[in-house]
Specification:
Number of domains: 2
Strand content: 5-15%
Distance between the termini: 50 Å
Number of strands: 2
Number of helices: 7
Radius of gyration: 19 Å
């Protein structure tokens, strides 16, 4: 039932040359229901579209800035990092009890690195101008 409601609420705003959906929007007649439906839960099949709509709608920077962040993230995935060793030590130590992290370099571990690493590198470089691995080793208990 919830999937059908989201189906009626979201609309395609743009497609790529292959016909795949590139951007989503909320139908004007259903915009007032967005908050209530988000609180009730976003169905799995609509999560990507819902996050895009929410980011574009409520970010102060606008849609173009959100797209630039996405591009920055994708570029960050390709870059080598001097933080890999420290992250490699921290992930098993902090979340090894979770089922997705029982196997080192398993699916959960790779997903975490894919999600966290580009954002973490950007944050650390913006926050601390000194070489990061040195600072991490000094501040760790």
């Amino acid at each position: 039932m919830r999937v059908a409601k989201w189906d009626r609420m979201l609309e395609v705003l743009g497609r790529d040359s292959g016909g795949n959906v590139e951007s989503w929007g909320i139908k004007a007649s259903k915009a007032h229901k967005l908050r209530e439906r988000v609180y009730k839960g976003i169905p799995d099949r609509w999560r990507r579209a819902a996050w895009e709509v929410l980011m574009n709608r409520f970010s102060r920077s606008g849609r173009k800035a959100v797209e630039e962040l996405g591009n920055h993230y994708l570029q960050g995935l390709e870059k080598p990092s001097s933080y890999d060793i420290q992250i490699d030590l921290d992930v098993p130590r902090t979340i090894s009890g979770h089922i997705m992290f029982h196997t080192r370099y398993g699916l959960g571990y790779v997903l975490v690195l894919t999600l966290i690493l580009p954002m973490l590198i950007t944050l650390l470089q913006a926050t601390f101008p000194i070489p990061r691995p040195t600072l991490l080793l000094v501040t760790m208990p």
